[in-house]
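Entry for nicotinamide-adenine-dinucleotide complex. Fields follow.
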Amino acid sequence: MQQNPITTVKFLDQASKQFVESIDWDKYSSVFLLCDENTHRECWPKLKSWYPQLFNDEQLIIVEAGEEHKKLQTAEFIWRSLVDSGADRYSLLINLGGGMITDLGAFAASLYQRGIEFIHLPTSLLAMVDAAIGGKTGVDLDNLKNQIGTFNQPKAILVFDDFLETLDDEEYLSGMAEVYKHALVKDSSLWSELISISNDRLSLQLIKKAANIKAEIVEQDPLELFIRKVLNFGHTIGHAIESNFLSYGNPIPHGYAIAAGMICEAYLSKEFSTLSDEDFQSIVNTLKEKYPKLEWTEDDEPQMIKTMLADKKNKGGEIRMVLLQDIGKATFDHSISQEQIHSALKCYREL
Ligand SMILES: NC(=O)c1ccc[n+]([C@@H]2O[C@H](COP(=O)([O-])OP(=O)(O)OC[C@H]3O[C@@H](n4cnc5c(N)ncnc54)[C@H](O)[C@@H]3O)[C@@H](O)[C@H]2O)c1
């Protein structure tokens, strides 16, 4: 498939004309807007009031909020809504939401009539610095995260940080996990900045920095054949933790699971790569202080490992993982045994 690596993230001021000029409106036969019930309530009124000439309620497709709705049935609902509204191959879908909406909307758009164009307007911190960037689209299959999906780049990623005003603290903290991750795999000076700030909210400059780290890595490797793999740090174990909570009908914010996954994978980095004790402690102390301790039992772990064995990053039945050599330097494709993973999960449980 032809790739279209549009990874530039544009941070916009709602008072400027940039948004209107960023989209080639005449090119599209119709424009639809996907949101979940929360972004419909909190973000849609803002967008509509900033650009009343561009948007009206008829364009809306609203789905229920939450990871449990990032599934094929919801994509089907979007496809039916598009059919019912007469969307054709020249329609545009704008995804107004967090990572759940950008993943789901991009997935639905990439398959509707073999693919229509889409634009992301991320509204959560996590989507602004991570999920909206890079062209991974997807839905979950039962408890397996992002098991079904495509690579397909958005036509644009347009960010209004004004949307963060209504994002609650729990979701903001969830997004922070991906900011920490970007620092850990690529930018030790960002890590130093992050651990020295006392504010719970980040400056726009730090948000841009985190988004740019992702964009630069994706630009080099859009299909995740090499360097992009480092962005999976914390995610092999993190996704299994997230799936474990989902399987009990108790979803937790994505970033909380990733923060726990990063502690486990930092432990493996100390044991099986060159991460120093001191850096390991810096990671543990920072993430432990910020995030609630997640509880699971030893009995959950065989199923968690089974989930890891289904991970897309594996090859030949081996669990592959990203490890840190140092803060700011990651390497990928490390084969990690089930016993080693058990020891990492135990390390977290006993913190
Ligand atoms: N494609 C990728 O590369 C990639 C990368 C990282 C994460 N992800 C995916 O992203 C998802 C997590 O993203 P998320 O944390 O943004 O989840 P989310 O979209 O579920 O948003 C979290 C909650 O915040 C609400 N919300 C979002 N913006 C808001 C706003 N401005 N004001 C008020 N409420 C708002 C949502 O309605 C939801 O209830 C997961 O599905 C994960 O797999 C994808």
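NOTE: Residues 36, 38-39, 42-43, 65, 67, 70, 97-101, 103, 123-124, 126-127, 130-131, 134, 136, 145-146, 163, 166-167, 171, 174, 254 surround nicotinamide-adenine-dinucleotide (CB under 6 Å).
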